Amino acid sequence: MSENISFNSTELGAPVETLGYEQARAELEQVVRQLESGASDLETSIALWERGEALAAHCEAWLQGAQERLNAARGAQAGAQANTQGGQEPAAN
What we know:
By secondary structure, the chain is mainly alpha-helical. It has helices at about 20-35, 40-85. α1 (about 20-35) packs antiparallel against α2 (about 40-85). The N and C termini lie far apart (about 85 Å).
């Protein structure tokens, strides 16, 4: 019987929460390739699937955070433009 695999093992990499976006995405791609190859036994496949789910959620959280930062920057930029224009709309001709 194969041995159990934990998320903190060297086989599966560092704890997901410590990974940056690029690292998590690269590992997720590796996990998908491994699963698609069909070469792993059932226990390993389940551990890989669970790791893949955690990596995908981590990547999604990174992307949502980036989107929020962009939205905040756009909002700050729009506010600065409104202040520069004195908050008044141009007169209609």
